[in-house]
Amino acid sequence: MRNNPLLNRYDIHTAILSNEKVAEDHYLLRCECAEIAHHARPGQFVHVLISYGAGLLLRRPFTIYTVENSQITMLYQIIGEGTQRLSEMSKGATLQVLGPLGNTFDIAKAPPELAILVGGGAGIASLMLLAAVLRARGIQTLGLVGAQHRARLLSVTDLKSIGIDVHIATDDGSIGHHGYITDVLAALLGKTERHRPTIYACGPHGMLAAVTKIAADFEVPAQVAMENRMGCAMGVCLGCVCPVRIDATHVEYQRVCTEGPVFNATDIVWDI
Ligand SMILES: Cc1cc2nc3c(=O)[nH]c(=O)nc-3n(C[C@H](O)[C@H](O)[C@H](O)COP(=O)(O)OP(=O)(O)OC[C@H]3O[C@@H](n4cnc5c(N)ncnc54)[C@H](O)[C@@H]3O)c2cc1C
Ligand code: FES
User: Do residue 215 and residue 233 come from a single domain?
Assistant: First the structure.
């Protein structure tokens, strides 16, 4: 294990404790990473070296889904070669896990009266640790979970188990609202005027852009966790940058791996 205690960042060789299918094309992986578990904050991620084999030289980034004592979990979707190979790894197989990386959701400056978590697909993985912290602080929290269809729905049981009311939307209407989870968000905001809500969202780019527009229309603050493609995850390669509005006339490209992954939604320039 290499570590840099000043950065609270650790690179840990660890063995998989479990790696189970939890929905169509989605797996939950558990491993022992005591130092990462100890320092992890909501929204932070790990960079995982799956294998030194051909084509998998680069690590893959995954949000820390839950922390339980010295263990962390990752909830991931099979996308390409890396996640496919990861899903085929069994208990006892070894990984190298670097983290915790990135900034965190900010709930300290202005704790919300009502937190609304909006997760699209595997994006809900980035909101689970936040959900646990919000509930531990006694903040009323709603979970809005979108999926393509029932078999790909994630995290509903986990959110309910910590006392969160969950609203569901599926593209084909096989469970919950028939349509986008952003429809549910807009309808809910129309009914929550008495509260001071804050939105926390993660999911596909189009969903996050829609969340941002709804948040602006209702004048509600929103934070989004971006999942741009990454190379180094250390702020060096600039492979992960996204355009961020600095003031009325200036836009700057910022690194999702170091300045993010969490940004104020309205700071992101969605249409570049
Ligand atoms: C900060 C962050 C947190 C993430 N958390 C999760 C999570 O908790 N659960 C989850 O299912 N997915 C998460 N992702 C997306 C996940 O990293 C990609 O789906 C995964 O890297 C795809 O790898 P692959 O080899 O299967 O796909 P390939 O398409 O073969 O990957 C090739 C390369 O592209 C990169 N890449 C491909 N798709 C993405 C993507 N959507 N985002 C970032 N890099 C990508 C890979 O890292 C790799 O370098 C996260 C991404 C980021 C940036
Ligand atoms: S991934 Fe290399 S700078 Fe962000």
Answer: no
